[in-house]
Every structure is written in structure tokens, then in C-alpha cells.
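Duplicate of #3305? Posting structure anyway:
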């Protein structure tokens, strides 16, 4: 179970469709991070990190070392639960990798190098995610992500392919696992997990640069000891850009709730302001994974079907504004959430398909796919639209145009997170 072949193949960076997708994912990640930075706790995290990791990168009222700035951006990126994912990895390979590339660009790194490092880190992380199947009670964030962070940071640091492989081996031999418990408890500590992956990846790079090394079989042994997986697993071979399979979310919040939110939006103009009972029929996995009721914290609301429907009806969107303290205290949102009845659509469950039907009185809307599903990849125009939604008001129109030009056209990248 080696990553060396993938590293040798992907080292020079992507071209064509893979490069185009990498650019879109970087832009999408930046938009999610900008929205996340608006939350007071993320800014507090940045300022607290400054005590241990002071430096020259200005971010959220702090001045941070580059790796610490990337760690804060990783936390901000997942704060609203709106960033990318890869189905076969059962997680989000770009989550700690994109921030490293974004900080490098903001500090003047060559655009081609930053893109190559991002794609390399993504491919390593994606393959690690294919193999690392967590046990009940664990959370995927912050585990195999550290291998992708190590690959990206090593490439940015100027290590050759052998040096990148050393850094990945070092990260694999100390791969962590994290718990789902904070989400269950309505606590947002889960959002610090990708920050840990960034810092661990950077530390592995320093060790690799100093000549330290670890055995190739470390990742397989970690799977066996930590997860009980003794079987050999087939990861995607070199030559396949998994980044092309990445999905992007049209909304903030867990993807299982997106179908119900889209159906609610389709109904919004067809029902009176006082709707009565609201019925959501969806597949069993969505009910299990996103069945939180009456959420009192953002992290719980992000994993709540009923809250997604309420926010869509009240706000006309399911974006970062759905998870602010003001939204959580809004009497209208509270009343709408309480009016939602969740039921299983057994036909969806039996068929293994995703979708949802929302019914309000005599009006009903069914959604069987959303943007980002395999049959509906998010286009460049849709990515730009989402970026503008999420980046405002952190950036003004000029700042938004500058960020788009930097990440899609390799223009100078100063002011990526400053208006």
C-alpha cells in the first residue's frame, strides 16, 4: 500500500480537465473559508494561534506563521459545512490541502507550483481516503488528510518526489483518528480537526527535509492496528486524476439535507407565509445522519434536515447565514423547524438513490438530484456564483474579481482574504 507511484506520477501537476477542476476547487475552498472567517469563534481561534505560531501572514486580526494561517483557513473552510468532497474517499481531500496552497499563493508562490502542490496533495489524500474506513464513533476529518497535507507542503517546500514520499510515510506512521462525539454533543471542536492535519503535515515535511524517514508499510499497519483492517485494498492507480471526480456543494450543511432544501426552495413561492405542517420524505441514511431536531448550535444545525428546510423557506437559501447565532435564535426559523415532520421514503431507501419530497398543504416538490451529484457536476459559472455568495461581504466586488483572476487565470494573488 504505497503512495510513491502516485507521487511520482502526479508530481509535475495536472493538465487539461484535471487542472481546470483543481482551479475551481481552490476557488470554492477560498469562498468557504471567507464565509467561515466571518464567524467570531474562527477569528478567536486565529488570534489564539498567534501566541504559539506568530508570523507575517495577516489573517482574521492575527499575524501568523504560514502553516498556522493554513490551519486557521482549514477550520474556516469547514465551518459552514459547504466545502467539497469525494464520494470514494468518504471525505474531503481538499480540506487541509487547499489552505496550504492558498497561503502559498497569497505569499507570492508561483501559480504553477501552487496548483501542482494542491493537486498532488489531493491525489494522495484521495487514495488514502479510499483505504481508510473509519470505525463507528470516529470522524473522518483530520485522519488521512494529514498525508495529503504532507504531500502538498513538501512540494511547496521544494522537496523532490523522493522527499515528498518521505513526508507522506512519516505522516502515515502517526496518522491520527478523531471522534464524532463533538457533533453528537452539539459542540464545534470537530472544526479544529483539519487544522491538526495541516500542522501535522507541515511537521512531517520538516522531518523529511531533515532526512528522517519511516517505513513504507506504515499506512497498512495503521489500518490494521487502529481500524482492524487486515485486508489489502486497491487504491486508484497512478494515471487517474481523482480530483476530476470531486463534488462541490451548492449549499452549506450536510449533503444529505441538500435534496430537501432544494425541494423547499422550489415550494417557497407556492405556499403562504403560515404553512402549517411540513412533511419531508427522504431516504433512511439521511434520516439517520441528519435527523437532529431543534438544534441549538451551528454544528448540530448543519446536520439537521428539519433546519435545512426551515432555513430554505425562511431565507430563500441554505448558506452560511443559516448557522449564525441570529439565525439559531430566530423565532420564525424555530417555528418552521418545529413544524417539520420527517418520514422515510422507502422507495428511495430500497433503490439506494438520494432525493427528497417536501409537502406543505396541497403543494409538493420532489428533488432527485442537486448540483454536484455525479450527473450534475458544478460548472464554472455555478462555481463563480457560489463563490460570490460566500465571499460577500468579506470581499468587495474588486476583491472578488481579483481572487477569481488569481485562482482561475494565475493573476497576482495579493489580498485573497482582504477586501
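Output from current build:
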Amino acid at each position: 500500500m504505497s503512495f510513491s507511484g502516485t507521487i511520482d506520477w502526479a508530481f509535475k501537476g495536472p493538465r487539461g480537465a484535471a487542472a481546470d477542476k483543481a482551479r475551481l476547487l481552490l476557488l470554492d475552498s477560498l469562498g468557504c473559508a471567507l464565509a467561515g472567517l466571518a464567524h467570531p469563534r474562527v477569528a478567536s481561534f486565529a488570534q489564539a494561534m498567534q501566541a504559539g505560531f506568530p508570523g507575517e501572514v495577516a489573517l482574521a486580526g492575527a499575524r501568523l506563521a504560514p502553516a498556522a494561517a493554513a490551519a486557521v483557513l482549514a477550520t474556516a473552510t469547514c465551518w459552514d459545512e459547504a466545502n467539497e468532497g469525494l464520494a470514494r474517499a468518504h471525505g474531503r481531500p481538499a480540506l487541509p490541502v487547499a489552505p496550504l496552497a492558498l497561503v502559498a499563493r497569497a505569499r507570492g508562490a508561483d501559480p504553477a507550483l501552487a496548483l501542482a502542490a494542491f493537486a498532488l496533495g489531493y491525489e494522495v489524500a484521495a487514495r488514502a481516503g479510499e483505504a481508510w474506513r473509519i470505525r463507528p464513533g470516529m470522524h473522518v476529518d483530520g485522519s488521512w488528510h494529514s498525508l495529503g497535507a504532507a504531500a502538498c507542503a513538501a512540494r511547496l517546500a521544494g522537496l523532490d518526489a523522493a522527499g515528498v514520499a518521505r513526508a507522506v510515510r512519516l505522516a502515515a506512521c502517526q496518522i491520527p483518528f478523531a471522534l464524532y462525539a463533538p457533533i453528537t454533543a452539539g459542540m464545534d471542536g470537530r472544526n479544529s480537526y483539519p487544522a491538526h492535519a495541516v500542522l501535522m503535515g507541515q511537521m512531517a515535511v520538516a522531518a523529511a527535509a531533515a532526512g528522517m524517514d519511516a517505513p513504507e508499510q506504515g499506512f497498512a499497519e495503521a489500518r490494521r492496528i487502529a481500524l482492524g483492517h487486515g485486508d489489502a485494498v486497491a487504491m486508484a492507480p497512478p494515471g487517474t486524476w481523482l480530483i476530476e471526480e470531486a463534488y462541490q456543494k451548492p449549499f452549506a450543511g450536510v449533503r444529505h439535507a441538500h435534496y430537501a432544501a432544494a425541494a423547499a426552495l422550489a415550494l417557497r413561492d407556492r405556499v403562504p407565509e403560515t404553512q402549517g405542517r411540513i412533511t419531508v420524505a427522504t431516504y433512511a441514511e439521511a434520516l439517520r445522519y441528519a435527523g437532529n431536531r431543534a438544534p441549538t448550535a451551528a454544528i448540530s444545525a448543519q446536520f439537521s434536515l428539519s433546519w435545512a428546510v426551515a432555513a430554505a423557506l425562511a431565507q430563500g437559501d441554505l448558506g452560511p447565514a443559516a448557522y449564525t447565532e441570529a439565525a439559531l435564535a430566530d423565532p420564525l426559523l424555530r417555528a418552521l423547524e418545529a413544524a417539520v415532520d420527517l418520514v422515510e421514503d422507502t422507495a428511495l431507501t430500497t433503490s439506494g438513490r438520494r432525493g427528497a419530497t417536501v409537502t406543505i398543504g396541497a403543494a409538493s416538490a420532489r428533488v432527485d438530484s442537486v448540483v454536484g451529484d455525479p450527473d450534475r457536476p458544478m460548472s464554472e459559472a455555478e462555481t463563480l456564483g457560489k463563490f460570490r455568495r460566500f465571499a460577500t461581504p468579506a470581499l468587495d466586488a474588486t476583491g472578488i474579481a481579483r481572487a477569481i483572476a488569481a485562482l482561475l487565470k494565475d493573476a497576482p494573488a495579493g489580498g485573497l482574504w482582504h477586501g
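Confirmed duplicate; merging threads. The mean pLDDT is 94. DSSP finds 20 helices and eight strands in the chain.
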